[in-house]
């Protein structure tokens, strides 16, 4: 079979199928139009509604009243109260022990050996003589020089009047020279006064130096007691037990005192507090001999 014949056969079949499809579609369209144009049959009339009156329903019967039923109590068994154990009597509180304030124990102050003033040589003060000159830092005052007044030249009198006036002028000059003291008399009086004051000062120093050993020992004991009381007032917070230290006190002749901590306790904080408190040492009794003195005071402080 040639290709042209095959193509002609295929074209004939395609035309048949198209014709058949067109005929089927047209038949469906005619059927649809006929169904739409057909009149709708009228429905039969519905019967009229019938109303029936029903008798009211009887009320529901009241439920029977419940009869009281006596509650059946269970038989109670005999109850015996439990035995309550009696509490043991509380022990009587022990009486509080009243702690009496204990005064700080002051260390036994050993009196220092008093210096033997008897062995010291007593200075021999010789009375000053008029010829001895006492050395003084104060310069001596120069003697006052006599004031020479220059008078205006008088006119030359006549010879007779000049002779009469000369003896009268000589008398007042002699009186003035007699009234004025000699320039050497004033320095000599001052030397005598200075010598007497020096002698008085030496007498007072000798009296102080002659203080008895008992007076020196009493003074040392009083100074040590005051130093111990002062050091016990130091604020030593955080320390406990007995603290031992050594304080060196210097007392001037007028009683002015200064102190320093010579030996500490080993606790740096406590030693700093003791050193600051020793630096605030108050005035102490003056030495009886009038000479400055140094004292070494051992201190024991009990902190609780």
UniProtKB/TrEMBL annotation:
Highest taxon above the source species: Bacteria
Native source species: Paracoccus zhejiangensis
Protein name according to UniProt: Energy transducer TonB
Transmembrane stretches, start-end: none
Disordered, as annotated region: 59-213
One Pfam family, short name: TonB_2
Start-end of Pro residues biased regions: 59-71
Biased composition (Low complexity): 98-111, 178-213
Bias type Basic and acidic residues, positions: 138-177
